[in-house]
Amino acid sequence: MKASSDQPGPRPVIPDDGRTPWRLLALLMTMTAISSMSLNLLVPAVPRLAVVMQTHPDVIQLTVSLYVFGLALAQLITGPLSDRFGRRPVIIGGFALATLASLAAIAMWSAAGLIIMRLLQALGAATGVAIGRAIIRDLFGRERAAQMIGLVASAMAIAPMVAPLIGGILDTLFGWQAIFLFAAAASFLVLVWAAMMLPETRPRQAPGAEGGFRANVGIVLSSPRFLGYTLSAAFGSANFFVFVGAGPHVVITMMKHSSAEYGLWFLPFAGGFVVGNMITSRLSMRYGVDRMLWWGNVIEVVSAVLGVALVPFVDTLGLVAIILPSSLIAIGNGILLPNAIAGAVSIRPQAAGTASGVLGCTQMLLGAAMAQLAGILVADASTPMPMALQMLAVAAGCLAAFLLLRSPRAPRKA
């Protein structure tokens, strides 16, 4: 591994010789996918759970919505813990908690108990998201980290697509308990896998480790450039949540297509994100984080403008007028998100876990707010224009965050 000048006492666990460490990336991809997969696995079983537990569907829906909140909150906790105590013990402890919570959920026969187990499940699964990005930054320089994060981020696009299908099959054939048994098995697999092959990658702390840790956290949270990268990542990915929040109403209710067609047309959106990730993995080393961020922003803004321009032609073009600009936005998102994450966790590599946790929490909370707002805006609309305008506003917010981090007042190095 190449030692970074701003990273005291690096651990030479994996040499950065230019080759892709696929064995480590496979583990990090699986760790990252577990959180989003566990979220979406339960969605098909929500109606049945309301009947089984004799409660209102809105109460059972909390097992999904509060799981998202749990993921956001947990990243604020697990990221700093990994900076203080190490990546490896926090990941092993997190997936042990996720395994136990999933098994305990099988024994729950009240909505309150199930909701509590889902929150604990989220707390454990969040370690894979927050700490996985920190591990990549521990091992690689900023541009190389963006390349690796782009590859790992693909798992975040694929897992939500297959999880509802798996959950639906398990619920239909074996009942809702099988969903939690599957989640427990997946978490336990990662636990064993990490225990067997995951090295400790956290940089050794400088003399006065505890004070150094507090100082590192303070530097990260007070850095204007960290704020810029974090807001870039949050606004850049928020358009996905806008589409999730408004898309079903626009496609199914407004345009009179079936839910199956919505699911089919959702695939190009997820595919666009993967394409953007692949572009980042190919070009980030050549052009650098900030230039890739610029091009990701350009693609998002131009695509959002195209989306607004195509709304008057919805009757003629059909779903193409919705899916084409959304998929192009997703490509821009796939380019800018890994680079924004790499920039944020590089502000202070000694506190990469804290940086990743704060970024992930901001991303999840803003995304949830955008999804809720999108649903409200299109509820009484007669055209998709509110969704298109919200996507444009979010893209403009992402560009503003990028310009903020490029400001002369924002120091290049923390």
Structural features, described:
With about 425 residues, this protein is mostly helical. It folds into two domains: about 20-200, MFS general substrate transporter like domains (Growth Hormone, Chain: A, Up-down Bundle); about 215-405, MFS general substrate transporter like domains (Growth Hormone, Chain: A). Helices cover about 80% and strands about 0% of the residues. It has 16 helices and no strands. It has helices at about 20-40, 45-50, 55-60, 60-85, 85-105, 110-140, 140-175, 175-195, 210-220, 225-255, 260-285, 290-310, 315, 320-345, 350-380, 385-405. Helix 12 (about 290-310) packs antiparallel against helix 14 and helix 12 packs antiparallel against helix 16 (about 385-405). It is globular. It starts with about 20 loop residues before the first helix and ends in a 9-residue tail after the last helix.
